[in-house]
User: Fold these one by one.
Assistant:
Number 1:
Amino acid sequence: MRRFNSILVANRGEIAVRVISTAKQLGYRTVAVYSEADADAIHVKMADDAIAIGPSPANESYLVIDNILAAAKAAGAEAIHPGYGFLSENAEFAKACEQADLVFIGPSAESIALMGNKAEAKRHMIKAQVPCVPGYEEKDQTDEVLMAAAENIGYPIMAKAAAGGGGRGMSLVHKAEDLVEALRSARSVALNSFGSDEMILEKAIINPRHVEIQIFADTQGNVIHLGERDCSVQRRHQKVVEEAPCPVMSDKLRESMGAAAVEAARAINYRGAGTVEFLLDDQGHFYFLEMNTRLQVEHPVTELITGQDLVAMQIQVAQGQALSLSQQDIQFNGHAMEVRLYAEDPAKGFLPRTGQIALWQAAVGEGVRIDSGIDSGQAISPYYDPMLAKVIAWGPDRETARHRLMAALKNTLLFGTTSNKRFLIDILERETFAKGLATTAFIDQEFSKADLKNSSVSTNTAAIAAVIQYALEQQQAMQASLNVADDLLNWSSTGHMASRYVYQFAKQSFDLLVSPTATNCYQVALNDQALVLELLNLGENTARLRINGVGQTVYFLMPEPGVLLLSVEGANIECRNELAFSASAEAVAGDGQLLAPMHGVMQELLVSVGDAVKQGQRVAVVEAMKMQHDIVADIDGTIEAVAVAEGSQVAANDILIAIAGC
């Protein structure tokens, strides 16, 4: 190890911003890298220097080792921080940094390689006597051997890609006849995502908690842990909510899990920040799951309850210094929770969304921390993970942290793209979560498709939208007029003026008449209903109202005439006054033209020209934003044309496959 004065951050988004922030506070010179899509990104503006590393796709920029090393050389950087994702757990990258005389702020290439393969990692942990889930992790990968092993383990089992991560290449199998297909699918994902189709099998622990221990090791042989994080609330094996400490953790259990995690790190001669992940069953038994050889997305909750800066500690260890803390120095204070804010649509199977951020405004409040790498006007790229920000809250106890986090989400504004913000609030409001009883099955058990759609709009909300839109239009009219007295606003020789607003929300329709009745007071008529609204305050993006005597604060943005974007209790609603627009033609459905749902890569074609298909049949797979999206036939017919090849890039709404109807 050697000392350094400048750090290149080989990442983007909120983690690049996070690392650059701490590095600058410590007095280091910082270097950002960016793809064409990120030329105007916040992390680029924050750093002391920034180097372009290639086109927008990650495999042509952020994942190209030579490009990163060339950028470090060009900028005179002496160390590289990989963040998480991209090359952070790539042993070849860590080795290449060392060969280029660059300090890799992370573990050794050997440790990364060892823990990067689930099979090898598990064999090593068994040898180190770390509790592991019963399973099969040997090198013979034939279907026959795996099927025999599954029978020996006993169903249900988990089939996992040995080189996998992020929930990809993983499948829960309940019965023997489903194993071969599960293996085929998982191997395909694993080979495309990780370059290896090696699989392991594990006994499925039903409804466990996912609990991980944050460890830190220096080059002097010191290893400590900084407590646990509960990451049980997941969808598709990807974490959604994280908290520290775990709601069911006892001092004795923490001591046992912490000791096992420390032993796991010692067994591989680890250095730097790492996370040892465990499954915890309802009997208090825990089992090694995997080790992440990097900083975790959810590290802020550990920082908030320990008072430690984990990035600063990483830099300290990378300089060759001993940890300045012993295990006895680690004290826990209060409770912290974090949620991941994604550009995705929960109502459409959590499909990632792109677009331009019309307005981003992070909440502020007691105990609230928001890590983000976005700003108003920024485009959401289809080339990367759809996570936009992390919203985190600390409190002296779990309930305070939970309430602060819900308030922070409600008061954070994200207009211009669909997000999971309201879904996150719904999670935090559920009684099961509030009581600390959520397991990895929580989302599947608690949320139906109807819950996720949650698209109904109340009459009160429609009335609020109409009044705000009316008031904004009046303001604009005043600003465009000359020498009009305020007391003449809303005045007409025929009496009070009424304005009509027609909103259409999915299957709901509202035809509203707004009439001012006094200063800042309005009556909104809908059929035989009449609501009384008082507009107490109208700010730039915030409105305080009283509706039928009950106060409410909402947020808004009017991006164009006739359109109001409204945020009510964290739910974003687009209120479009149909009277201001001509009717648009309805989209044609079921025409046999299968389009790309978004930018991505055509991963798999399952049909050829001339094949007969049935409506609903899976015909292709597109990978985008680290997720696979099935393309299904929308009519019965015959494949008339296949417009793209496997492995090719596709743009949103590109025609992929044409079907001639029967």
Number 2:
Amino acid sequence: MKIVPDTSAVIDGRVSERVEEGTYAGADILVPEAVVSELESQANDGRDTGWDGLSELQRLAEFADEGEISLQYLGRRPTSDETKGAREGDIDALIRDFAAEHDATLLTSDSVQAEIAKAKNLSVEYVDAVVRGSGGLIIEQFFDDQTMSVHLKTDTKPKAKRGDVGDMHYRIIDEEVTGESTMREWADDIVNSARASPDGFIELSEPGMNIVQFRDYRIAIARPPFADGIEITAVRPIVKTDLDDYEFADELRDRLAERQRGVLIAGSPGAGKSTFAQAVAEFLNNSDYAVKTMEKPRDLQVGPEITQYTALAGDMAKTADSLLLVRPDYTIYDEVRKTKDFSVFADMRLAGVGMVGVVHATRAIDALQRLVGRVELGMIPQVVDTVVYIEAGQVHTVYDVTTQVKVPEGLAAEDLARPVIQVRDFETSTPKFEIYTFNRQVVTVPLGDGGEKSETGVSRLARQEIEREIRSIARGHVDVELKNQNRAVVYVDDDDISYVIGKGGGRISDVEERLGIEIDVRTHDENPSNKAPGVGGSGGSGGSGGSPSGTNAEPSGGLVVTPEITSRHVIIRMDGHVGETVEVRADDQYLFTATVGRGGDIQVSRGSAIADELENAIDRKMQITVVPA
């Protein structure tokens, strides 16, 4: 009797089982090298099936040594292309050809393999596949009514997040440390049960990582070398809500039911974003909208009428193409994170599909800002018109997003009008933020009550832009003072005045035209805020007591200096101190240590980290001092 077992029969241990019961006593067991190759590949990937199959081959070798069977390894190893095509049946075909060539009976627990072999008139013995796993969820013992997630890892105590939504606590739930053998047993049971049970499926299977969906549990299993030990993280929703459970329920219902919209549901991890998204999905489904979901992994707890789609061939763009043929009214996209996710979200929304995306963000406005640079600025309100921020399981903030052509808040010149994205509080219609382009940059400006700019809004932005422009022209220090929305005063060194203004005022006029603001150029001596000792003024020969040029004696023994800023360097004059090692400080805060050069000065190249710190200190009117190191 010649028997050729395929990979499935070897993995399930069906050959040794028949040898032990006497069915294959004295049989010639011919193992194709293709089977060995496939088991080796699975074992290298860390899959238990590979290790089980190798253990079976070792048992067969023991039977052969005892004379109960004859064991031979024959045939050729599959090529790399055939190995890659294992899922398409390339290796199964090799095994069938091997059995036909040796006029042997094919033993298999793969029903498809058996049917094809019968169709080719081969001798086939089919045995039922071994059911692996307990069929249940072995780690369910760690969950109670208030447990959102369980966290298990080799050589650690089991932990869980328990509590109410928004008030979760990470705590030890068992004082006994979990050993590696136990973790391996639990991990194998979860994967095998998911494969065998109609209640579960494998969402992702990669070397070192499995993601399993089993009933309402989402379970991530990490193994070495991907992780430094076996880790199991199981998550499940602890509440299922209705839209009526949230603030603004009536307004949100009317808004969503009015027409297809673009909505971002934002919040920090564990805040309850997905729970709210489920409530929105159920409401839309009950409002005669065709609703689908896009999830990877699929863990939203929605009714059977809502079909849940995952990444098709690992690509959500392909899922989107398929969904456009299905023609949903609304699609729930859980989780929108990467640039490609935002692109898919925008494409579907612009195709007319209502989109609800779940986004990680620590503030409501942050969710909208994640679209900047990923979606053309002017299209953002067409892609997202509503932002819902969830905190501690409740609706904290709702923003209405629109676009207008207007002069941004804080500016007044009519020729500065441009498309502005206005973000308003949904409840009060008060403007909260404006997003627009300013000097080729996209900026988000927070607004105060009534739409007035805050201290960190347009004024700061305008001042920074003016300072940047003038610094590119001036050779020395630059100060900027905003007088009003349309006028600024720039203070520069005496010898920079004519250079900044330019011949016939042409250079400063160009800057005014670029920035859209009137600029008055003056010297530092004319700056009312620049009269502190050691700052501004004439400098020149310095003070009494033989202090070096640009310095004043300080009672503490340090020297107050006035650094000079040129196009390439920040220079501190230290005449009479050549070769000394000194510390440079700002308001007595240490900046750096330097040695005075042979020219009697310290030079720091602009653009370096040290120069940036020094210039920032100068801009903040901090007192620059030099003390012996």
Number 3:
Amino acid sequence: MNGFTWSALVLSLMAVQTAMADVRLPNVFGSHMVLQRRKPVPVWGWADPGEKVTIAFNNQTKSTKAGTDGKWKIALDPMEAGGPFQLVVTGKKTKVAFDDVLLGEVWVCSGQSNMEWQLQSAANGKEEVKAANYPNIRHLMVNKAISLTPKDDIEGNWTVCSPQTAAVYTAVGYYFAQQLQHELNVPIGLINTTWGGTHSETWTSREALNQNDELRPVAGKLPKTYEEVIASGQERTRLLLEKQQGGLPTVAQERTWSDPTLNTDKWKSMNQPGDWEWGGLPTLDGIVWFRREVNIPDGATLSKVTLRFGSIDDKDSTFVNGQLVGSTKGLLPRSYAIPDGLLKPGRNVIVVRVVDDSGGGGLAGKPEDIKLSGENLDIPLAGQWKYRVAQVFPSSFKPGPNTYATQLFNAMLSPLIPYAIEGVIWYQGESNAGRAYQYRKAFPLMIQDWRQRWGSDFPFLFVQLASFNAGNGDSQHGSSWAELREAQTMTLQLPNTGMAVTVDIGDPNDIHPKNKLDVGKRLAAEAMRVAYSGSAKGESATGDASRGPMFEGVRVDGNKAVVTFKNVGSGLMVKDRYGYLKGFEVAGSDHQFHYAKADIQGNTVVVHADSVTSPVAVRYGWADDNSEANLYNQESFPAVPFRTDTWKGITEAAKFDDK
């Protein structure tokens, strides 16, 4: 080794030793952060073993020594709201300073895409962003990450709410903070740790899953490395495609798939529009062909016809009767002019070759956006399409947040603990709807897991699933979404919990309803009830009314069922221009439900159907799309969907390891 190389090595070692000596804090701390008022405030980090660390903040100065593992933690005494302050952490060789630190209320915002949904994409979001000048609202975006073991840090930065920063804030969290600040007049800090499409089990620790006999096998499937995950994904996909279509085609075979005479009897079917990962191709990135036959009636004008799609995720090449009519890249709406003479009365074939590079894939528009239209022609194309996989990209095998349980807890939640918080707001459940009965155990388990690790029964507020026609589910055919809402309602048995009911502000055709303003306001109303009512911090203006009218009991009076409610506030009311109460059904001993007439009488609703002479069970809002349900209290909080029976549900047998 020559002298130059030896000197470089010595300098490198000295640099490493110096870096190791630096006092360091996790990224949950930073300039512009909000620290929780009126509670002890843990501050922690790393230094050299035995190194003295001193914290100075808001007239408090405290010191400690790093342990043999280099970790240290200091708890600041409770403080009142205020700021801005500077927090300074000093070690033997280095000093870390965070500026513009406020004291106020800190809430964790977590869940899947409806909590992740950005303000700029919400209803009136662009106008709201322009007016988002709230310097006392702060937001920490936790970057997406997965891990098979608990991590000790996250990536992310605190920002001050302004028109320059608010566009990417969680919309629900933003409106929640806006309302809380109005009520409490203190700074509000939001910690946004979300990931769309995720199960509750990935947000739960391995130790918690191991406490439950039904969920313990889920934790036991965790591999040691992600190399194992990739190998498992490759084998899983190979077996899936072998079962569905006998494997992947050759290039020559794929070239024939636009031919309208092709025999597709062995092709599978999938509802479109929709994410193909939910339609039978989980985790798949690649190329999938979709085909649909269209029957055009005699007499239709077949000139100047347009084939319209909403957006397609990510690229398409579209054929009509074997001829390419258009190709587009990106999530832009498609509108392809059909050459005159290409269409004919009777059978026509539309074929779409979809290339998906990452994430979800498929026809991504709204159902009403997919159609064939002309002068006297309007043929909707939403519904069942035949499909076949042509290629699978390597990215299909990259581990995702749902590949195994606990991964988001490890990477995006555990590193936040024990940062002092007031509570959690949560919007998730869509991804668990297929296992709604299991959610009765999984969801409370996750809440208790978080509370145990924080060492506090902090308020946990969540959003009940909004109305959405996930699969035409109802009382006649069974509804997984209704069963998931029931599991969420049952979770209210845990102390210090609250639920925002959103049956009236969903979108039957969109799993991501754009009205996040009312969601945030209803969560804030529950926060005032659960977290702040009866204290010097604030008072709930609505008492228990913010919970919404909730089923209390039922009695049968002849051919009528009389349902009583709690949380009625100033009284029950119906929101309908004609005064009709909707959403109620009644069944006799044959278990056949019938739409019922319902009338408000005081704090009760009297329900009856002419075809049911002896009522046995009543249901309200029991459907995937339950947007017609219109019972409220006078404070305008919607009633909680319910059923009085305990008849077998369609998700009782579904388990996590069936996925």
